[in-house]
Specification:
single chain; 84 residues; alpha+beta; five-stranded antiparallel beta sheet; 38% strand; globular; Invasion_prot_B
Length: 84
């Protein structure tokens, strides 16, 4: 995110109208157990992702991302031994 999320908070993610909830850890958002692969598949097949969360200071943030290019980037990460 580039900033610490509010401690103990979740973020809401919308990928092409499908809603997800992720938990936060400092500046990172993670899928709940068992949802990782589904979330990755949605990102691979999606067009747009909107993320809504709260910063450590309590500021509501909304970020919109294009998912075009996600699949090749993800495949590059998987194939790069330095990222494992």
């Amino acid at each position: 995110a580039g900033y610490p999320f509010q401690e103990g908070s979740d973020i809401n993610v919308d990928i092409d109208g499908k809603k997800y909830t992720l938990f936060t850890n400092n500046e990172t958002a993670l899928a709940y157990d068992g949802e990782d692969q589904l979330f990755i598949e949605r990102m691979q097949n999606g067009k747009k992702m909107i993320v809504v969360g709260f910063s450590k200071r309590g500021t509501k943030t909304t970020d919109t991302y294009s998912l075009f290019g996600f699949t090749p980037a993800y495949e590059t990460i998987l194939g790069n031994s330095k990222c494992k």
